[in-house]
TrEMBL record:
It comes from Trifolium subterraneum (Subterranean clover). GO terms for molecular function: nucleic acid binding; RNA-DNA hybrid ribonuclease activity. CDD domains: RNase_H_like, RT_nLTR_like. Residues 809-899 form the Reverse transcriptase zinc-binding domain. Signal peptide: none annotated. Residues 345-433 form the Reverse transcriptase domain. PANTHER family: NON-LTR RETROLELEMENT REVERSE TRANSCRIPTASE-LIKE PROTEIN-RELATED, RNA-DIRECTED DNA POLYMERASE. It comes from the Eukaryota. This is Reverse transcriptase domain-containing protein. InterPro entries: DNA/RNA_pol_sf, Endo/exonu/phosph_ase_sf, Retrotransposon-Effector_Assoc, RNase_H-like_dom_plant, RNaseH-like_sf, RNaseH_domain, RNaseH_sf, RT_dom.
Amino acid sequence: MHVARGSSLSASSSTMASYSHGLNGSPRGRGIMRLAAWDLLRALGNMSSIPWCIIGYFNDLLSQTDKKGIHPHPNGLCMGFRQAVSDCDLTDIPIEGHQFTWIKSRGTPHVIEERLDRTMASTSWLQLFPQNSWLKEPDLEDVVVEGWGGRENMEVVDRVTRCANKLQSIQYQELSERRATLLIQEEGYWKQRAKMHWLQEGDMNTRFFHMSATVRSKKKKVTKLIADNGTEAHTQEELCEVAKSYFDILFKPRDGDHDPVLNLIQPRVTDDDNFVLTAPITKVEIQQALFQMHPDKSPGPDGFYPAFYQRFWEQCSDDIFSAASTWLERGYFPTSLNETNICLIPKCDNPTSMKDLRPISLCNVLYKVISKVLANRLKFCLEICVSQEQSAFVEGRSILDNALIATEVIHALKRKTTGSRGELALKIDISKAWGFLRGVMTKMGFTDVWIRWVMMCVSSVNYSVLMNSDRVGHILPECLTALIHQAVGRGDLHGVRICRGAPEVSHLLFADDCFLFCRANAAEVNELMRILHTYEAASGQEVNLVKSEVFISRNMSQAAKEDLSRILGVKLVLGTGRVGKEIMIKSVLQAIPSYVMSMFILPASLIHDIEKMINAFWWRSGSTNNNNTKGIHWLAWERLACPKAHGGLGFRNFEAFNKAMVAKQVWNIVQNLNSLVAKLLKARYFPRSSLFEAPLGYNPSFAWRSMWQARQIISLGCRWRIGSGVNIRVMHDPWLRGSANRWVPSPQPAGVYQLSVRDLLHEKYKAWNIVKVRNLFSKDVAEKILETPLVSSVREDKVVWEEERNGCYSVKSGYKLAMRYIIGSDKYHVMGNWNGIWKAQAPHKARHLLWRLCRGCLPTRSRLLERRVECTLNCPVCDEEIEDELHVFFRCAVARDSWSAASLSSVLHNATYQQTNAMDRIFAICSNESSDTVGRVAMLLWCIWHNRNDKLWNDNVQMPRQIRRHAFDASNDWYSVHKLQSNNVSGNTEADLVRWEKPALDWVKCNVDVAFVSGSGRTSMGLCFRDNSGHFMADMTQWQQTVISSVEGEAWALLLAMEEARYRGLDRVQFESDSKVLIEAIHMKRRGNSEFLSIVHDILSLMSSFINFEVKFVRRQANLVAHTLARAANSWASFHRFENIPFCIERLVFNEMQ
């Protein structure tokens, strides 16, 4: 091996030292020289800790993908080279173009190609151009404050520019002083580039992220485009010109007659809506909009991520708020603020047309903040602006609703084989345009101020296209609904009814896709085309006929079908047996695979095949190009899918997950009975009953069949909340609380079966009619009914989901319930202290090794023999005893010496840990040692196992002190990183009050708490008002003869406190509670079905009337006065006001006043 060494300076930092090597590898076939070359590579890596890059002819392969030919490269050599590269912390930089650099026997059938030349770089080298990782730099805040400009009179965009210039001068400190920080930055940098937001924790190993980011970059590269005139573009300059021309035409304003469409739109927005929409923006709104963004979302042209503004919100917030208010008041943005990059994402592997590329707009964060503030305001009146035929965009609606309707309509057309009148479904794709947005908003009743704000965001943008990272140049369905409704009203168009009594469906909107339905005759088809042409001319949007399809009912002749498709100018989809599902999958579901599992129960055979493939992927060996990669399946999928606390890995059981996802659609129908999809399904399948009692029906669609099965999950986890009680049947609905069984047990007296819950309440007020309940029911049933709390804030009967605090169904809780009651996963549970393993303070790979050890999944030679794998039985390290788990980790001489070197001999030889199998021994250690010690043990065992494998495959053996050093370094790195991360988190959280503090001048403080005294069957509360000097003003106690949940009790107490403040004429009150759940629900304005959130809704209504009512969380130590009053409330009448201080709190108030 020949090495040439040189030094260079980073392009981004003239003082940042780095070095590079040129290399010429050892010749093939000389094993000793190859080992020497790998050792030399390690020696070079240990020479210095500064950034390192090595380039040259290595004459070795990292994997089988580096070779193309008939004979595979020896796996042992690949593993040896990979290990050397890993030891040096090098990352292979992908090659562009042809992936092989050496060829032999060119032009013959025996041609061999290999990649022998490569460039590799250390992590620190790759981090010379970090992204959000720089936010963890020490002293960064000082640089930002200086760059931002403090009180200087500057535009925010100028502050951002100056800040960027200051930040470019940041210098890294010596890497040896900041290893923990760089480990976090390394993972964060590649995590951000990889855009894998779902990965929450890594192993300080960025190879996965690097591969993911590299694949994304390579996939986004465009090499050829065909322009509209048919010419091909290959060079970067030609590609840029094609992209620029495409968007110039797309965004070019189109003149058209808007009036025929705009005149059909009726005013919908009220004066009250406009008042809310155009109210002055607040700092809280801007903060909320900013923190709704993911920190690592791609930046706009100014290069700043949301993470920057989130990290320095305290320093920048005042200036951003002031600037945003000014921009909206004057009606335009600074020129540079609304510059936008259009990033092109390929829809296929080799894009050749601009239509093969999906444009994604990358806006500056400050621009997105303003638009998000407006979008958040618009949410509250969007439902009245968007017709029910559009199921996207509106909160509370699901795009799957229209997918279900389309499925049912297509199913009905497929079933229609008789009759003279045919019907058709036309699926069209509509391009986007904003040409007449101003006119639409005006007709809907929006004020000029709101219209000006919206048009600021959508009409003043300067677009630039990113073509292979080069920046190139600057470059509505409600109206369609109105046209269709007009035609239907005149009788020129008729929608489709799937059965008698079902609503007529004329069109469905899926964002920019659309389904149109009419009768299959020339007159209605021509009317449909006239409507589309009118809409195109008025809006500037275009129907993409290439992507459009038509499906016609089966009772029409083939000739008639072809004639109608020619009039429409679109492709005819033939009426085969699976056409309905094919159209739905291609047009709506194919884009997002989870849609399929959200609508249809997959066949058991398909689920089995999916789980089988995933299981095979999990257990197979690392090389993906070796044909013999099946691997040993140590555990069945059902055991892997068990929760981690019961011996599994928490993988999803696909049957349960599939049913939980479909159950979400059942829940949506139960909650929104007036929605179009609910009306349609009710007319077809359960016209005279509830969904829970509906029969499967005759010839049902696949979607209904799936929901009919999945409703079992909803039945198991739901109950009725009691409002008026009119809609809740005593014996036929689940409504009881306080026990596992939510149903009134049978049998009961005959007259009870016809009663509603309303019949059990007093007529004039909401309380149980105790005498009537006890006369109608047996003693135990009557007590269960009387124990069910009645919450006055709940005014409407509604189904709630018991498994979530907000009372709304979630797939996560539905999945857990399905696993408990339907799948019965507990039969695969394994008892043991599994939580002790997963809580160990060690990298995940070490905890995973402990799990494999306890589940018998490590390929020791004794385990391999059990699996009928022929091998020698002796330990490959000591060659003295049969290799099993106890020998490898506890009895082998090298292992014992490693325990001693790691100062863990006391754990190894502890008499409590001498069980006869490895699993019981590990569980005993986890039960009796601290999580830190368990973590050290886990990391040591991982290094022992790594040493065993190194000996087996590479004939390398480390000394016990080297094993100890490796384990110590890895544990120390992991601990340092997690300590730093936890410090960052704790440093960002606001300190909670632990002692009572006096309110500000002219303010009153009210402390409130709730108590549940065991055995009393009561819920009691107490509150105390004090002035800004800490003097007692008044207090109150109240109790009710029922037990409600703790969060409901806290909310009930706070609501009573606010009503008491209103009664006393207090309008500047700070309320303090020791319930963090309650205070967060109020601050976040959470909504839901539960009784708890119904009370929160009443609290928010009161606070909207009294703008100087504030709520704050304090710890129990700062709320002792209210806590003491609540505990003592049972000593007095159910409602008691105190104008003089009670004896029980006199000492506490006096002490806190000091």
